[in-house]
Amino acid sequence: MLQNINIQGDNTKNVTIVNDVFVGNINFTNGGILQLSGNLTTPNIDFGANSGTLEFNGNNTYSLNAVITNGQTSILNVLTTLKATDATIGTVKTINIRQAGTPQIFTIQANNGNLALLSSPNSIINFGDADSQLTLSALIDQTVTFANSLKGIVGGGGIINLDGNGNNLTVSGNNGTTLGTVGND
User: Fold this and answer.
1) What is the model's pTM?
2) 3-state percent breakdown (helix, strand, coil) of the chain, nearest 5
3) Could you say which DSSP state residue 113 is in?
4) What is the pLDDT of residues 78-100, one digit of tens each?
């Protein structure tokens, strides 16, 4: 296994890896965009202080198991079917479940009793297609707390699936946050 992949860029050009990746760490050292169309196996992703974009865009189903640091500056583009399993996914500032005309599926299945989503200031989850889906799947009794509102698409769109898997799944929000927005129904 490689020790590190360091991504450097100005967020206008892409680094694209089409094969499977097995690496100890992925570091965004000065921004940059990493596009993956293969499997990613890494325990750590550090988005750095200058932001970074991680994009999954292949035709398969992928897993994101890494611990994320500096998520408050990051962007995750889901252009495929992706499952995140570490609670630090909640620190990612912008999650785009998008590709107009092609619904995408993003599942969060973290094995934590308390899961905070949209926990970075001004964080957001965007749906790029009315049929794109966010699934919250509980492997244990779990409380999912949204620190910011999950708005959906203006005019209606975006699907949230809540799956307790036989466990208690409680969804709440901080300080008046909402799932959906009046007028987007």
Assistant:
1) 0.93
2) 5, 50, 50
3) S
4) 999 999 999 999 999 999 998 77
